[in-house]
TrEMBL record:
Gene3D superfamilies found in the cross-reference section: Vaccinia Virus protein VP39
Domain spans labelled Methyltransferase type: 61-152
Organism annotation: Pricia antarctica
Protein name: Methyltransferase domain-containing protein
Listed GO biological process terms: methylation
UniProt xrefs under Pfam families: Methyltransf_11 (PF08241)
GO molecular function: S-adenosylmethionine-dependent methyltransferase activity
Sorted UniProt keywords: Methyltransferase, Transferase
């Protein structure tokens, strides 16, 4: 598969920065992922991410680590962190930046050890794709937790992107699928990915799936725009 994301990270790490990653979604929005933002330090992170990093404890698995900004911060605090990503370029970028422990794999294929904290930031739960995969995904994460361990993740309820009706509700098209399943393609330097589904998850749906898998779930904090940080244990 094309490692578009990883190639972009490696370019930026190598001092070759000429454009950002372009994104195209089923919500009819064209946007970009600014590469410098993926290399930000703690002070440049939003409060929800900062709070999540402060709550990390023990051994930590940074799932979907990207450029490794969260892993680097935790590592510098003296915590034991493993950065995991299925992008070869992302894991190589982490190594070049000084992340000591990196694993190149899909999280669903990872079974080697257990952790005190599983970390999924920047809407990391999006890798679930279709909502029907969520329960099985959480079941797998449970197998990676030590006794007393926790999952920290953030997401957004994108209901705000749909038209509001006269009584304050939202009009969501009846497409037969969950409104938080968004089809994306990304493009970098003329190379475009195949379409993929990225999941944006409202809190009540997350909590319901957590309870189904015998996990407690709570909101730790909320952002300014329908985003939240949740802890599952």
């Amino acid at each position: 598969m094309k490692d578009i994301y990883g190639n972009a990270l490696l370019d930026y790490q190598g001092g070759i920065y000429s454009e950002d990653i372009a994104t195209f979604s089923s919500l009819d929005e064209e946007d970009t992922i600014p590469l410098p933002y993926l290399f930000r330090n703690f002070d440049a992170m939003p409060p929800i991410e900062q709070k999540a990093l402060e709550l990390c404890k023990g051994s930590i698995l940074d799932i979907g680590c990207g450029a490794g900004s969260h892993s680097l911060y935790l590592q510098k605090k003296g915590l034991e962190v493993t950065a995991l990503d299925r992008s070869k370029g992302a894991i190589e970028t982490c190594r070049l930046r000084g992340v000591e422990n990196g694993v190149l794999t899909d999280i669903l294929d990872f079974k080697e050890r257990k952790f005190d904290t599983l970390l999924m930031l920047m809407n990391g739960i999006g890798i679930v794709g279709n909502l029907e995969n969520l329960s099985g995904f959480l079941k797998h994460l449970k197998t990676l937790l030590k006794p007393g361990g926790q999952i920290l993740l953030d997401s957004s309820d994108i209901i705000y992107m749909f038209d509001e009706d006269d009584d304050g509700g939202r009009w969501v098209p009846n497409s037969g699928s969950y409104y938080g399943e968004v089809a994306f393609t990304i493009q970098y330097k003329g190379v475009k990915s195949e379409p993929f589904i990225w999941l944006y998850l409202d809190y009540q749906t997350l909590k319901s799936a957590a309870l189904t898998n015998e996990l407690d779930c709570e909101i730790i904090s909320k952002g300014d725009h329908y985003d939240y940080l949740a802890r599952l244990w």
